[in-house]
Specification:
alpha/beta, Rossmann fold, 6-stranded mixed β-sheet, 3-stranded antiparallel β-sheet, 13 helices, 9 strands, globular, binds adenosine-5'-triphosphate, binds magnesium ion
Protein backbone atom coordinates (compact mmCIF):
# COMPACT_ATOMS: atom_id res chain seq x y z
CA UNK A 1 0.00 0.00 0.00
CA UNK A 2 1.47 3.35 -0.95
CA UNK A 3 1.36 6.36 1.32
CA UNK A 4 -1.17 8.03 -1.00
CA UNK A 5 -3.81 5.31 -0.97
CA UNK A 6 -7.20 6.20 0.50
CA UNK A 7 -7.14 9.87 -0.45
CA UNK A 8 -10.50 10.88 -1.93
CA UNK A 9 -9.76 14.58 -2.50
CA UNK A 10 -6.38 16.05 -3.24
CA UNK A 11 -5.75 19.63 -4.37
CA UNK A 12 -2.39 21.20 -4.88
CA UNK A 13 -1.95 24.94 -5.43
CA UNK A 14 -5.58 25.37 -6.45
CA UNK A 15 -6.30 28.91 -7.63
CA UNK A 16 -9.37 30.54 -9.15
CA UNK A 17 -9.41 34.09 -10.43
CA UNK A 18 -12.68 35.39 -11.84
CA UNK A 19 -12.14 37.76 -14.75
CA UNK A 20 -14.31 40.60 -15.96
CA UNK A 21 -15.80 41.09 -19.42
CA UNK A 22 -12.44 42.33 -20.75
CA UNK A 23 -10.67 39.30 -19.19
CA UNK A 24 -9.00 41.44 -16.54
CA UNK A 25 -8.52 39.58 -13.25
CA UNK A 26 -11.30 40.80 -10.99
CA UNK A 27 -11.66 38.51 -7.97
CA UNK A 28 -9.10 36.09 -6.54
CA UNK A 29 -11.65 33.70 -5.07
CA UNK A 30 -9.22 30.87 -4.22
CA UNK A 31 -5.44 31.17 -3.98
CA UNK A 32 -2.89 28.38 -3.72
CA UNK A 33 -5.19 25.99 -1.85
CA UNK A 34 -3.76 22.64 -0.75
CA UNK A 35 -6.29 20.15 0.53
CA UNK A 36 -6.24 16.45 1.34
CA UNK A 37 -9.32 14.53 2.43
CA UNK A 38 -8.91 10.86 3.21
CA UNK A 39 -11.48 8.13 2.72
CA UNK A 40 -14.02 7.96 5.52
CA UNK A 41 -13.21 11.41 6.86
CA UNK A 42 -15.81 14.06 7.58
CA UNK A 43 -13.94 17.20 6.59
CA UNK A 44 -15.16 20.71 7.39
CA UNK A 45 -14.45 23.64 5.11
CA UNK A 46 -15.07 26.83 7.06
CA UNK A 47 -14.70 30.51 6.43
CA UNK A 48 -16.61 33.79 6.36
CA UNK A 49 -18.83 34.82 3.44
CA UNK A 50 -16.87 35.13 0.23
CA UNK A 51 -13.81 33.25 1.49
CA UNK A 52 -13.87 30.81 -1.43
CA UNK A 53 -15.58 27.70 -0.05
CA UNK A 54 -18.24 27.28 -2.74
CA UNK A 55 -15.76 28.16 -5.48
CA UNK A 56 -13.48 25.38 -4.18
CA UNK A 57 -16.38 22.93 -4.17
CA UNK A 58 -17.38 23.87 -7.71
CA UNK A 59 -13.83 23.20 -8.90
CA UNK A 60 -13.83 19.82 -7.14
CA UNK A 61 -17.03 18.98 -8.99
CA UNK A 62 -15.69 20.12 -12.35
CA UNK A 63 -18.31 22.88 -12.57
CA UNK A 64 -15.59 25.56 -12.67
CA UNK A 65 -12.13 25.26 -14.20
CA UNK A 66 -9.23 26.21 -11.95
CA UNK A 67 -7.05 29.09 -13.11
CA UNK A 68 -4.06 27.17 -11.70
CA UNK A 69 -3.39 24.07 -9.67
CA UNK A 70 -4.30 20.40 -9.72
CA UNK A 71 -7.19 18.35 -8.41
CA UNK A 72 -7.80 14.63 -8.01
CA UNK A 73 -11.24 13.49 -6.84
CA UNK A 74 -11.50 9.77 -6.12
CA UNK A 75 -8.18 9.46 -7.90
CA UNK A 76 -9.44 10.99 -11.14
CA UNK A 77 -9.98 14.35 -12.75
CA UNK A 78 -13.18 16.08 -11.59
CA UNK A 79 -14.74 16.13 -15.08
CA UNK A 80 -14.26 12.40 -15.58
CA UNK A 81 -17.71 10.80 -15.88
CA UNK A 82 -16.46 7.88 -13.81
CA UNK A 83 -15.83 10.34 -10.96
CA UNK A 84 -19.30 11.87 -11.10
CA UNK A 85 -20.97 8.48 -10.65
CA UNK A 86 -19.49 8.21 -7.18
CA UNK A 87 -20.00 11.77 -6.00
CA UNK A 88 -23.11 13.26 -4.37
CA UNK A 89 -23.54 17.02 -4.23
CA UNK A 90 -25.89 19.28 -2.34
CA UNK A 91 -25.48 22.84 -3.71
CA UNK A 92 -25.82 25.85 -1.42
CA UNK A 93 -29.01 26.89 -3.26
CA UNK A 94 -31.69 24.26 -3.91
CA UNK A 95 -32.13 24.05 -7.69
CA UNK A 96 -35.28 21.99 -8.03
CA UNK A 97 -37.94 21.81 -10.73
CA UNK A 98 -40.88 23.58 -9.12
CA UNK A 99 -43.59 21.45 -10.70
CA UNK A 100 -42.09 18.04 -9.98
CA UNK A 101 -43.14 16.29 -6.79
CA UNK A 102 -40.53 15.09 -4.30
CA UNK A 103 -40.83 11.54 -5.65
CA UNK A 104 -40.61 12.69 -9.29
CA UNK A 105 -37.56 14.81 -8.46
CA UNK A 106 -35.71 11.85 -6.97
CA UNK A 107 -36.81 9.62 -9.83
CA UNK A 108 -35.45 12.16 -12.31
CA UNK A 109 -32.03 12.14 -10.65
CA UNK A 110 -32.11 8.34 -10.37
CA UNK A 111 -32.67 8.21 -14.15
CA UNK A 112 -29.72 10.53 -14.74
CA UNK A 113 -27.58 7.90 -13.00
CA UNK A 114 -29.34 5.27 -15.13
CA UNK A 115 -30.52 3.30 -12.13
CA UNK A 116 -33.06 0.62 -13.03
CA UNK A 117 -36.71 1.32 -12.10
CA UNK A 118 -36.78 -1.25 -9.28
CA UNK A 119 -33.63 0.21 -7.68
CA UNK A 120 -35.01 3.74 -8.03
CA UNK A 121 -38.29 2.82 -6.41
CA UNK A 122 -36.61 1.08 -3.51
CA UNK A 123 -34.09 3.84 -2.87
CA UNK A 124 -36.65 6.64 -3.23
CA UNK A 125 -38.93 4.94 -0.66
CA UNK A 126 -36.00 4.69 1.75
CA UNK A 127 -34.75 8.22 1.13
CA UNK A 128 -38.19 9.87 1.46
CA UNK A 129 -38.64 8.06 4.74
CA UNK A 130 -35.14 9.01 5.86
CA UNK A 131 -35.61 12.74 5.24
CA UNK A 132 -39.16 12.74 6.63
CA UNK A 133 -40.99 13.65 3.40
CA UNK A 134 -42.93 10.45 2.70
CA UNK A 135 -46.24 12.08 3.72
CA UNK A 136 -45.80 14.94 1.22
CA UNK A 137 -44.06 13.03 -1.57
CA UNK A 138 -46.70 13.91 -4.20
CA UNK A 139 -46.73 17.68 -3.58
CA UNK A 140 -44.78 19.88 -6.05
CA UNK A 141 -41.46 20.87 -4.49
CA UNK A 142 -42.10 24.51 -5.51
CA UNK A 143 -44.64 24.57 -2.67
CA UNK A 144 -42.14 23.25 -0.13
CA UNK A 145 -40.68 25.38 2.63
CA UNK A 146 -36.95 26.11 2.43
CA UNK A 147 -36.03 23.38 4.89
CA UNK A 148 -38.28 20.86 3.11
CA UNK A 149 -36.53 21.71 -0.18
CA UNK A 150 -33.21 21.17 1.55
CA UNK A 151 -34.39 17.71 2.58
CA UNK A 152 -35.28 16.87 -1.04
CA UNK A 153 -31.84 18.15 -2.08
CA UNK A 154 -30.15 15.95 0.46
CA UNK A 155 -32.09 12.88 -0.66
CA UNK A 156 -31.17 13.72 -4.27
CA UNK A 157 -27.48 13.92 -3.37
CA UNK A 158 -27.64 10.37 -1.99
CA UNK A 159 -29.64 8.62 -4.71
CA UNK A 160 -26.49 7.25 -6.41
CA UNK A 161 -25.09 5.89 -3.12
CA UNK A 162 -22.01 8.11 -3.49
CA UNK A 163 -18.58 7.34 -2.03
CA UNK A 164 -17.90 11.07 -1.70
CA UNK A 165 -20.57 13.45 -0.51
CA UNK A 166 -20.04 17.19 -0.93
CA UNK A 167 -22.49 19.23 1.11
CA UNK A 168 -22.62 23.02 0.83
CA UNK A 169 -24.54 24.36 3.85
CA UNK A 170 -26.64 21.20 4.34
CA UNK A 171 -28.45 22.44 7.45
CA UNK A 172 -29.22 25.96 6.23
CA UNK A 173 -32.94 26.58 6.61
CA UNK A 174 -33.44 23.32 8.46
CA UNK A 175 -35.29 23.25 11.75
CA UNK A 176 -33.18 21.99 14.67
CA UNK A 177 -34.80 18.55 14.52
CA UNK A 178 -33.92 18.22 10.82
CA UNK A 179 -30.46 19.65 11.42
CA UNK A 180 -29.83 17.10 14.16
CA UNK A 181 -30.95 14.29 11.84
CA UNK A 182 -28.72 15.52 9.04
CA UNK A 183 -25.82 15.62 11.47
CA UNK A 184 -26.58 12.08 12.65
CA UNK A 185 -26.80 10.97 9.04
CA UNK A 186 -23.45 12.55 8.16
CA UNK A 187 -21.80 10.98 11.20
CA UNK A 188 -23.28 7.61 10.26
CA UNK A 189 -22.09 7.89 6.67
CA UNK A 190 -18.60 8.77 7.91
CA UNK A 191 -18.58 5.71 10.19
CA UNK A 192 -19.52 3.56 7.20
CA UNK A 193 -16.50 4.63 5.20
CA UNK A 194 -18.08 7.38 3.08
CA UNK A 195 -16.14 10.58 2.71
CA UNK A 196 -17.94 13.85 3.42
CA UNK A 197 -16.78 17.37 2.60
CA UNK A 198 -18.93 19.70 4.62
CA UNK A 199 -19.09 23.42 4.03
CA UNK A 200 -20.98 25.25 6.74
CA UNK A 201 -21.30 28.32 8.94
CA UNK A 202 -22.76 26.22 11.76
CA UNK A 203 -19.70 25.85 13.93
CA UNK A 204 -21.49 23.53 16.32
CA UNK A 205 -22.10 21.15 13.39
CA UNK A 206 -18.39 21.17 12.72
CA UNK A 207 -17.48 20.49 16.32
CA UNK A 208 -19.97 17.63 16.50
CA UNK A 209 -19.08 16.04 13.20
CA UNK A 210 -15.76 16.82 11.63
CA UNK A 211 -12.54 14.86 11.95
CA UNK A 212 -10.56 17.67 10.34
CA UNK A 213 -11.22 21.26 9.33
CA UNK A 214 -9.71 23.90 7.13
CA UNK A 215 -10.50 27.52 7.95
CA UNK A 216 -10.38 29.78 4.88
CA UNK A 217 -10.13 33.53 4.60
CA UNK A 218 -9.61 35.51 1.40
CA UNK A 219 -9.28 32.35 -0.69
CA UNK A 220 -6.47 30.89 1.43
CA UNK A 221 -6.40 28.29 4.20
CA UNK A 222 -5.34 29.93 7.47
CA UNK A 223 -5.64 26.92 9.79
CA UNK A 224 -5.95 23.21 9.11
CA UNK A 225 -5.92 20.19 11.34
CA UNK A 226 -7.76 17.67 13.46
CA UNK A 227 -10.73 19.25 15.25
CA UNK A 228 -9.79 17.86 18.65
CA UNK A 229 -6.23 19.17 18.34
CA UNK A 230 -7.29 22.62 17.14
CA UNK A 231 -9.91 23.04 19.85
CA UNK A 232 -8.21 21.65 22.92
CA UNK A 233 -7.22 24.33 25.48
CA UNK A 234 -3.86 23.21 26.75
CA UNK A 235 -3.80 25.74 29.60
CA UNK A 236 -6.93 24.70 31.55
CA UNK A 237 -8.64 21.61 33.00
CA UNK A 238 -12.36 20.82 33.35
CA UNK A 239 -13.58 18.45 36.06
CA UNK A 240 -17.24 17.39 35.89
CA UNK A 241 -18.95 15.90 38.89
CA UNK A 242 -22.34 15.93 40.66
CA UNK A 243 -23.54 19.20 42.18
CA UNK A 244 -21.17 20.16 45.05
CA UNK A 245 -22.11 21.81 48.38
CA UNK A 246 -20.26 25.08 49.22
CA UNK A 247 -18.17 23.36 51.89
CA UNK A 248 -16.70 20.91 49.38
CA UNK A 249 -15.96 23.70 46.91
CA UNK A 250 -14.09 25.57 49.67
CA UNK A 251 -12.10 22.44 50.48
CA UNK A 252 -11.16 22.12 46.79
CA UNK A 253 -10.08 25.75 46.80
CA UNK A 254 -7.84 24.93 49.75
CA UNK A 255 -6.30 21.94 47.95
CA UNK A 256 -5.64 24.06 44.86
CA UNK A 257 -4.16 26.86 46.95
CA UNK A 258 -1.74 24.38 48.54
CA UNK A 259 -0.56 23.63 44.99
CA UNK A 260 -0.18 27.33 44.24
CA UNK A 261 -3.31 27.48 42.02
CA UNK A 262 -5.45 30.49 42.94
CA UNK A 263 -7.97 30.41 40.10
CA UNK A 264 -11.08 28.21 40.27
CA UNK A 265 -14.30 28.83 38.29
CA UNK A 266 -17.29 26.96 39.67
CA UNK A 267 -20.48 27.09 37.62
CA UNK A 268 -23.58 25.00 36.90
CA UNK A 269 -23.38 23.50 33.41
CA UNK A 270 -26.20 24.55 31.07
CA UNK A 271 -27.79 22.18 28.61
CA UNK A 272 -27.61 23.12 24.96
CA UNK A 273 -30.58 24.92 23.40
CA UNK A 274 -30.62 22.14 20.80
CA UNK A 275 -31.38 19.49 23.41
CA UNK A 276 -34.19 21.59 24.98
CA UNK A 277 -35.74 22.25 21.54
CA UNK A 278 -35.60 18.60 20.52
CA UNK A 279 -37.24 17.55 23.76
CA UNK A 280 -40.15 19.99 23.34
CA UNK A 281 -40.78 19.02 19.70
CA UNK A 282 -40.60 15.34 20.58
CA UNK A 283 -43.23 15.91 23.28
CA UNK A 284 -45.53 17.73 20.81
CA UNK A 285 -45.15 14.87 18.35
CA UNK A 286 -45.90 12.31 21.03
CA UNK A 287 -49.14 14.22 21.78
CA UNK A 288 -50.14 13.79 18.12
CA UNK A 289 -50.03 17.51 17.18
CA UNK A 290 -50.74 17.86 13.41
CA UNK A 291 -48.22 19.39 10.96
CA UNK A 292 -48.29 19.93 7.18
CA UNK A 293 -44.52 20.19 7.12
CA UNK A 294 -41.72 17.67 7.19
CA UNK A 295 -42.01 14.80 9.59
CA UNK A 296 -39.24 13.59 11.76
CA UNK A 297 -36.98 11.60 9.42
CA UNK A 298 -36.53 7.88 9.73
CA UNK A 299 -33.35 5.87 10.01
CA UNK A 300 -30.53 5.94 7.49
CA UNK A 301 -31.58 4.26 4.23
CA UNK A 302 -30.45 0.65 4.08
CA UNK A 303 -28.65 1.05 0.76
CA UNK A 304 -26.43 3.73 2.29
CA UNK A 305 -25.46 1.23 4.95
CA UNK A 306 -24.41 -1.21 2.24
CA UNK A 307 -27.32 -3.61 2.91
CA UNK A 308 -29.08 -3.18 -0.41
CA UNK A 309 -26.92 -5.48 -2.49
CA UNK A 310 -27.56 -8.43 -0.22
CA UNK A 311 -31.30 -7.82 -0.28
CA UNK A 312 -31.49 -7.49 -4.06
CA UNK A 313 -29.51 -10.55 -5.03
CA UNK A 314 -32.35 -11.58 -7.37
CA UNK A 315 -32.97 -8.11 -8.78
CA UNK A 316 -32.38 -7.37 -12.50
CA UNK A 317 -28.79 -6.62 -13.43
CA UNK A 318 -27.66 -3.01 -13.54
CA UNK A 319 -26.42 -1.87 -16.98
CA UNK A 320 -22.69 -2.45 -17.24
CA UNK A 321 -21.97 1.25 -17.71
CA UNK A 322 -23.23 2.14 -14.28
CA UNK A 323 -23.08 -1.17 -12.46
CA UNK A 324 -19.87 -1.06 -10.52
CA UNK A 325 -19.95 1.00 -7.41
CA UNK A 326 -23.28 2.69 -8.05
CA UNK A 327 -26.08 0.26 -7.55
CA UNK A 328 -24.57 -2.81 -6.11
CA UNK A 329 -21.34 -2.05 -4.37
CA UNK A 330 -21.53 -1.87 -0.62
CA UNK A 331 -19.47 0.88 0.98
CA UNK A 332 -16.51 -1.35 1.65
CA UNK A 333 -16.10 -2.34 -2.01
CA UNK A 334 -16.23 1.17 -3.51
CA UNK A 335 -13.72 1.52 -6.31
CA UNK A 336 -10.21 2.15 -5.02
CA UNK A 337 -8.69 5.50 -5.87
CA UNK A 338 -6.26 5.78 -8.77
CA UNK A 339 -3.10 6.38 -6.80
CA UNK A 340 -1.11 7.05 -9.96
CA UNK A 341 -2.78 10.39 -10.56
CA UNK A 342 -2.44 11.37 -6.91
CA UNK A 343 1.21 10.39 -6.94
CA UNK A 344 1.79 12.47 -10.03
CA UNK A 345 0.05 15.41 -8.34
CA UNK A 346 2.04 15.13 -5.17
CA UNK A 347 5.35 14.62 -6.84
CA UNK A 348 5.12 17.70 -8.99
N1 LIG B 1 -19.15 33.53 -10.87
C1 LIG B 1 -18.47 34.46 -10.18
N2 LIG B 1 -18.02 35.59 -10.80
C2 LIG B 1 -17.30 36.49 -10.11
N3 LIG B 1 -16.97 36.38 -8.81
C3 LIG B 1 -17.39 35.29 -8.16
C4 LIG B 1 -18.16 34.26 -8.80
N4 LIG B 1 -18.41 33.28 -7.88
C5 LIG B 1 -17.84 33.68 -6.72
N5 LIG B 1 -17.23 34.88 -6.89
C6 LIG B 1 -16.49 35.62 -5.87
O1 LIG B 1 -15.51 34.76 -5.31
C7 LIG B 1 -15.38 35.00 -3.91
C8 LIG B 1 -15.61 33.71 -3.15
O2 LIG B 1 -16.98 33.32 -3.31
P1 LIG B 1 -17.56 31.94 -2.76
O3 LIG B 1 -18.97 31.81 -3.27
O4 LIG B 1 -16.62 30.86 -3.08
O5 LIG B 1 -17.54 32.21 -1.20
P2 LIG B 1 -18.08 31.31 0.01
O6 LIG B 1 -16.92 31.09 0.91
O7 LIG B 1 -18.80 30.12 -0.50
O8 LIG B 1 -19.09 32.33 0.72
P3 LIG B 1 -20.50 32.07 1.47
O9 LIG B 1 -20.14 31.67 2.86
O10 LIG B 1 -21.15 33.41 1.42
O11 LIG B 1 -21.28 31.02 0.72
C9 LIG B 1 -16.38 36.11 -3.58
O12 LIG B 1 -15.71 37.35 -3.58
C10 LIG B 1 -17.36 36.04 -4.71
O13 LIG B 1 -17.95 37.31 -4.99
MG1 LIG C 1 -20.78 29.46 -0.38
Amino acid sequence: MTATEGIDIKCVGLTKTFRDFWMRPRVKAVEGLDLEVRRGQVYGLLGPNGSGKSTTIKMLLGLLSPTKGRIAVLGRRPRDVATKKHVGYLPEESYLYRFLSARETLDYYGRLFRLPASVRRERIDMLLDMVGLEAVEHRPVGEFSKGMQRRVGLAQSLINDPQLLILDEPTSGMDPVGARQIKDLIADLGRRGKTVLLCTHQLSDVEDLCDRVAIMFGGRVHAEGRCDELLVQEDSTTIRTDSLPDGVVNEIRGVLARHGIGHLDVERPRRRMESLFLEIVERARAQGTETSGARSGGQVADFLRGHEAAKRRDAPAVPAAVGAGVADAPVETARPVDTGLIDSLINR
